[in-house]
């Protein structure tokens, strides 16, 4: 029996969400033991990618019609948080895999069939920066470009990149006069990877630059993310509204891991230089730990509420709302800021032992700071949040 068929039978016989969490718990010791290897390689080792594939990471948001699990969105985020709690880079590539399958759901049916012709466990990645151009020609588009931050490109099977559509060398106007954007998706072997990922954090994500030399691409390989959804079901109504919530799951999962690491250090009986008692017996340590735990619980609760609200709207068929995009951004930015603070405080409280590469706390801190630099978690998003608050406050009471 083929691997894909065995995996399908495995998930059919068990609750797929619970089965994935069990698989993650079984894999946890190996992921944590290989953290230094992941960072040194600047990618997830191929055998570990296959373990993630066997757990179902790449199929969790693929529709059941194509052999996927089609998990409810909150369940999928719980899986991502569990992986991120173990290792930031592993969590990040799991997000890329989940987002990739949702992006693919917006593609032309013929392309979608080709992507999943051999089963649902397909690793898809790409770059959402419009680093390419797609020139309209008689037989399709001439596409070329160079895109940054293509996380997971070292193990992806399909890769996509956002392109500005041009005609006669000039951008084609889209909505509100902005340039029209299309996503080009091609097999990974059609792309070049530039070894550029030397970063302050999330080192194991393989987020290199990708390059596409000028080539003729048929229409079927490009699609518009703003077009009406091609698939039924709450997961596939609108992609943009989900993206900030993925970042929230990443921030919360990493903050949970930082607190786990701090508690583990305290339970070793460590006593810092010049301290009168071990860390865990110090009221100063206990006070600071209490503040950290309160911040973490607030972050967990905020994310849970935002995810539940979005999922209710998705089930009601009203997810595709610009205000929801802003609400999601509000939560992503606040969570990133709060969780960076949790990691910073945990690192400081751990003392000098946390400065070594062998300490997971310094890695959590670096990963959270790099994750907070992402566009969906940037403080500038608060401008739109403020505008929304002003508009709503000026509206007549219902």
UniProtKB/TrEMBL annotation:
Q: Name one GO molecular function term.
A: flavin adenine dinucleotide binding
4Fe-4S as a keyword of this entry, yes or no, is no
Alphabetically sorted, this entry's keywords are: Oxidoreductase
The segment(s) forming the Acyl-CoA dehydrogenase/oxidase N-terminal domain are 24-95
Q: Does the keyword Oxidoreductase apply?
A: yes
Q: Name one Pfam family in it.
A: Acyl-CoA_dh_2
List where this protein forms a coiled coil. Answer: none
Ranges for domain Acyl-CoA dehydrogenase C-terminal come to 246-378
UniProt xrefs under PANTHER family = ACD11 DEHYDROGENASE, ACYL-COA DEHYDROGENASE
Q: Per its record, how is this protein called by name?
A: Alkylation response protein AidB-like acyl-CoA dehydrogenase
